[in-house]
User: Fold this.
Amino acid sequence: MKNLQKIKCYVFLIAVFFVFAFKANASLEISQIMYDPEGADDGREWVKLYNDSDEELTITGGQSKNAWRISGGESKESLHYINEDLNIGPLEYAVIAKDKDIFKQEYPSFSGSVTSASISFNNTAGIVKIWDGLDPRNVMASLSYSKEDVVSTNTEEDTSENSEVSIVRGGISSSSIYSKKSEPKITKIDASITSDDVAISGLALKIKPKVYNNKGTTYNVGRFVWNFGDGSYLESNNAEPFDHIYWYEGEYLISLEFYKSGGSFESEVSVRKVIKVISSSLYISSVGGYSDPYLEFENKSKYELDLSGWEVKGVSKTFIIPKSTILLSGKKMKLSPKITNFSVEDLKYITIINPNKEIMATYPNRVFYNKTPASSSVYKSSSKTDPKTGGVDESKVVNLNNLNSLASSANSNINDTSYYIS
Assistant:
């Protein structure tokens, strides 16, 4: 009875193994081989892999016994180390190159993972195989090639619908004649917008586009047309990241349209994203005294606040908050005088200024302002009197701890505003 149970257990394990092996083998394909590049071969040979599944596939690199191997092109089959792990997302591509740095230089638009291996392909004919790390090893993907195949001088895949074989310069891709899945014949372009979902009014929001197709190509140049939903727009010819500032709270719709060339009238793809803009709700919650002239901030919003590069101006000294300083939601931050080098005299009047030179908070928290050039005389009280403000027009008083009031009423900028402190 025990022997029968053992036999059933072994049969089950073997069945699980073959199901797993079949699934992995079915999901990994060799889509292209660069076996004889134009000019010198040194470091310029590569193999392009495709994950034809809805799950991420990991090829284990390194020299351990359970690491995967690659072979191909030699008269006597030799298994070569794959230097690093290779993670291939669902329906995505990756490359194993002789020299990954050279590959990235020659194909900068390729956005998939790249690793290297000591491969060397025969320039006439051969077969490339990817082996797993089991004992004995199994062939997880393979593709043969021959010099008799037509070779194109194009670096991009042949997308002709009448072509049975998709060709790249000096190498051949898989197709139906190899009983492998060919790369998509119809190019589909997609796009995405990368940025924080929540922005702070008056602060720069970093935005980065990505335009790509279903063959692994990323479009870094073209015509990128932006609309930020606040009355402003931008046109650029590249996919470099940039900053945009929203000045008021609310929800805004960013849209991007991509055109392959400046003369195109119809966009290849468009994408949208909603950005929520809030006030910073930064307060100077307390200050120290003669024995310990510290300074304490509080973030009263529901979101964390990046204080990188903000200026803390005292009466005679200025402290720059270092990069990557984050004040969490509902939390306080106390700055020691040993860090700021502030004295108690500096604490008599404190101004917090963001990198765009916008005043975000002050201490004391009431300031009289005059929207005149800094060279003009300082504003004093008007003829209108108010017992609550000591003879100053209340319309000229702004509570800088209320940043909504600062943005909408004061709209003050440290470069063009002069102040009188009561």
In short: Confidence is low (pLDDT under 50) at residues 7-25, 150-169, 172-182, 366-422. Residues 253 and 274 are 5 Å apart (CA to CA). Helices lie at 2-27, 100-106, 337-340, 403-410. The longest helix spans residues 2-27.
